[in-house]
Amino acid sequence: MDHPVIHKRHDAGRRAPHLADYAGTCRAFRWEAARAELAGLPGGSINIAHEAVDRHVAEGRGDRVALRLIARDWSVRDLRYAELAALSSRFAHALEALGVGRGERVFTLLGRVPELYVAALGTWKRGAVLCPLFSVFGPEPIRARMAIAEPAVLVTSAQLYRRKVAPIRAELPFLKAVVLTDGGDGGLDWKTLLDAAADGYETARTAPGDLATLHFTSGTTGRPKGAMHVHEAVVAHRITARYALDLDENDVFWCTADPGWVTGTSYGIVGPLAIGCTMIVDEEEFDAERWYRILAGQRVGVWYTAPTAIRMLMKAGAELPARHDLSALRFVASVGEPLNPEAVLWGERALGLPIHDNWWQTETGGIMIANYAAMDIKPGSMGRPLPGIEAAIVRRTGRGVEAIAAPDTEGELALRPGWPAMFRGYLREDERYAKCFADGWYLSGDLARRDADGYFWFVGRADDVIKSAGHLIGPFEVESVLMEHPAVAEAGVIGVPDPMALEVVKAFVALNPGYAPSETLRSELLAHARKRLGPAVAPRAIDFRPSLPRTRSGKIMRRLLKARELGLPEGDLSTLEESA
Ligand code: ATP
Ligand code: MG
């Protein structure tokens, strides 16, 4: 796309000028060296919880604030590294007392409450496997995921239990215990359990390849898969938080991801704690005014959020950020969906900083491709591969998979397996897992292209790409052009069957405040898109919608727009957000 490059000044008082020498760092990078930066446990064992909390205590940093928890009513509670270490040890003891063995699954169904962090770390200390669920899930998605993983323990609140778990309790015979953070009927009381347990716990000597975490994918393209991750993933979480989020131990960091989404674990728990910084945890859901107040009031330095949130902030207008002191903010990053160039540029205007897009998946466990602090940004690009990551554009041929060397050619984004955060399987779906690999590549299912400078550009999900009159059209490009128009808050683009062209492009658009759907506006948008994209790629039709269907992790569900448009079965909607 034709947006100007944003040049970075490499001397601009940046705390961590990582990758100023990108090529040199990539050449010199060794995963073994990153691994050697861990504290480790005797016998070559690695345990995430040890790196995330106990290490800091052992090295004299126990007094630092690990979590600053902001409750709905704005009351603030700090949890220091030493407290988090002690509480998670108590939870590990409690699990042991409940008869939870190594490798057994512990599910959480919690919002952003302190117990979530304690339960996650305690589970890892015990050597059990953590699986966080979205707290907004209804009974059926909860039941379905539990039926696959057969957890021994569920940690949730009394209210969530009553509404969502009690009705299906009889279908969960494998559960040894339900722990309720605030006590009540149907489960054990969190406080009683922890009060009865000791502070010190001898953390399980897990092998680097032992299972640590199970994460279900977002379900954007179909039935969610349970991606399995291991303890050595912490090597990647730590180093990618440093490189791609520019994070160091002196930072106040805020990751807005929901705890049920992989981002909430990799960069909402593991990476930042392994680095030893202070994390802001807001119990409340999105609210533009509240978010600016937190950014300003907490002097947030590094902020990791998602395009859906950025689009909502854009919709809320420019006066809000102008009223808040955002001078502490020094790095903003986004993940989950393509970040439209408009959003990158909005960041510069409204926050005083461009937004750094990065790309990864539940399967990859950590960030793979990113716009780094020290790197010039091409708005609309996902950036370049992290050191230690080999990414390529490939084509599937009759004989296998071949890498495409020529720049600016569209193909499937593939990665060479071998980084520590890589998933080790889809739980109980070996065939689906095996299909992700061919000829030494992991195939991401996303289409992209790489330009001559090595920047990767997202084109679309392989499933979402539109084939029209001999062209392959990525929805992202069309959506980004629609987003340029001041009336457009969000856009989702699909292909609909056409007798002449095979498929034609149809767009669904939600409008900014102050704009109403009209024939005039429709014609204006169609004309704008035709002018920018040409008639072959521009949408033929535009429908106005109050909002677009999205997943819990904030991704536009194009498959649902399409199914509804064509009257087809809607498929697995377990991750669809309620309001949609
Ligand atoms: P499912 O696999 O169940 O369909 P999902 O792929 O949305 O769901 P996640 O693992 O949460 O589940 O999301 C990873 C996907 O999100 C990527 O494959 C990509 O399509 C999209 N994505 C993530 N970050 C970016 C980005 N920066 N730019 C474009 N797309 C992105
Ligand atoms: Mg996916």
UniProtKB/TrEMBL annotation:
It is an enzyme of class 6 (ligase). Residues 56-427 form the AMP-dependent synthetase/ligase domain. Its EC number is 6.2.1.1. It comes from the Bacteria. The keyword Repeat does not apply. Keywords: Acetylation, ATP-binding, Ligase, Nucleotide-binding. Pfam families: AMP-binding, AMP-binding_C. Residues 477-555 form the AMP-binding enzyme C-terminal domain. One of its GO terms (molecular function) is acetate-CoA ligase activity. GO terms for biological process: acetyl-CoA biosynthetic process. PANTHER family: ACETYL-COENZYME A SYNTHETASE, ACETYL-COENZYME A SYNTHETASE 1. This is acetate--CoA ligase. It comes from Mizugakiibacter sediminis. The lineage of its organism: Bacteria, Pseudomonadati, Pseudomonadota, Gammaproteobacteria, Lysobacterales.
